[in-house]
Amino acid sequence: MSIQFTKENRLFIGGAWQRTDATLPIEDPSTGEVIGTLAAGSAADIDAAVAAANAATTGAWGKLTAAERGRILAKMSTAVAAEAEALAQLEARDVGKPLKQARADALALSRYLEFYAGAADKLHGETIPYLADYTVFTLREPHGVTAHIVPWNYPMQIIGRSVVGALAAGNAAVVKSAEEASLTALAFAQIAQACGLPDGALNVVTGTGEEAGAALAVHPGIHHLSFTGSTSVGALVQAAAGKNAVPVTLELGGKSPQIVFADADIERALPFLVNAGIQNAGQTCSASSRILVERGIYRAVLERLGERYRALKVGAAIDDLDVGPLISAQQKARVESFRSLGCKDGLAVAGEGNIAASAPKGGHYLAPVLFADVPPDHVLAREEIFGPVQVVIPFDTEEDAVQIANATDYGLVAGVWTRDGSRALRMARAIRTGQVFINNYGAGGGVELPFGGVGRSGHGREKGFEALYAFTRLKTVAAFHG
Ligand code: NAD
Predict the structure, then answer these.
(1) Ligand 1 center–CA 160 separation, angstroms
(2) DSSP 3-state assignment of 35?
(3) What's the rounded Cα separation, in Å, for the pair 57 and 67?
(4) Which position among 83, 179, 251, 462 bears the catalytic label?
(5) Which residue positions in the chain have pLDDT lower than 50?
(6) Does 214 contact ligand 1 (Cβ within 6 A)?
(7) Counting C-beta atoms within 10 Å of the first and last residue's C-beta, which end of the chain has fewer, N or C?
(8) Per residue in 189-206, pLDDT tens?
(9) Pocket test for ligand 1, best of 101, 158, 219, 230 (most atoms within 8 A of CB)
(10) Which residues touch 411 (CB under 8 Å, ≥6 apart)?
(11) C-alpha to C-alpha distances, 459 to 113, 157, 183, 411, 452, nearest whole angstrom
């Protein structure tokens, strides 16, 4: 098969592609041009998708063995890898991300499919020693219909870690993709269909959060909800799902620190310190938006970071420079307001990137900026900006570093740079977060590594084998046999 970009997109419900009267524009963030339309799914479309998913759980999909499910996912993994370039081109155009990042996302989706294909038939319950005359065991059963509300920043990766795990565990999924970027979610549905995923096992409803998303979160026919997005909307959907006592996984925002001690390998750290802040134009939940540096090396590290910033080039996704555009004019205005606040409050700019002359005029470009000597209680050091803005903060002692690292309401990821192994482990224990990286940041994004937050960064874990536990429910069977 070959993924084609179609200007008019449809909903994918019960294995059929359906039109809607209402549509949403698709904008290319690199040019600001409208390049097509998305179907604007309604509450009625969500009803139809949930019904189709429910039917799939007792139909052809529900009757497959775990190994058979795994085989379909493995086939999809191969197909995604074969289509990786077409998927990357689509994602680059839709999200504005530089092609190398879009290619990495497509390969990550293939890898999620490979990992969960292999895991599908290795998920099982246990036997429990109990009273004489009893045999007790647990069954891991799929929830039934899982709902997945997906943001625009990494559609392929988030589908990989959320939807694919749910399918591997035997659920049928309803995906509400983001209004700003849905093209690869629809392409994923095409691939699933071509690879023989039974009708209704996967449904994709594009549309607004306020209509389609809200209808899905409160739907009495869903049995689990995975939400990835902002903390404010996460709180809304959790409350909505709570009306039906539906379990929820929330993957929300962050304000993740990297902490650099004076004994660190600075040459190794430097690219991680900058890239983790500007990747995907800073529109990454696990972006490292705070850099904490021990005072003894603070000025020297700041100078090196500034040099790197001055070399950053911003341009169209297809030009594949260091940084692409922001997703929308609205997002650009929001990030600009944080930058202006930093300047108004007299924060020093230690480095700024450059917008390439080739960047199309209508695109949503913003030069990345690095602010120095930022007080830990300043709004730029506390709030998620979701753009290419990093702050650098000096610290004096290990305790000081922990205190600053833990001084936000978020807790998603942290990086610790030191050659002192004992200190690295003390820091890993002391930081309030979901993941800690020692002498690296992100570990290459490994699909095997459980991921999720604490506090306002959310709860529950996706990725790795761990995710499969959330996509199943446990049933205990106690048999008395005399
Ligand atoms: P968002 O919360 O605005 O939207 C996310 C999704 O929710 C979209 O599909 C949207 O249509 C839907 N939505 C909006 N309003 C809704 C409502 N009332 N009911 C139901 N659904 C609704 O977030 P965004 O701006 O698309 O994404 C950016 C945010 O996502 C950032 O805060 C970022 O940190 C976070 N994020 C977190 C992770 C993670 O894994 N922790 C990953 C990616 C993004």
Answers:
(1) 16
(2) strand
(3) 16
(4) 251
(5) none
(6) yes
(7) C
(8) 999 999 999 999 999 999
(9) 230
(10) 254, 431, 432, 433, 434, 453, 454, 455, 456, 457
(11) 23, 18, 28, 10, 6
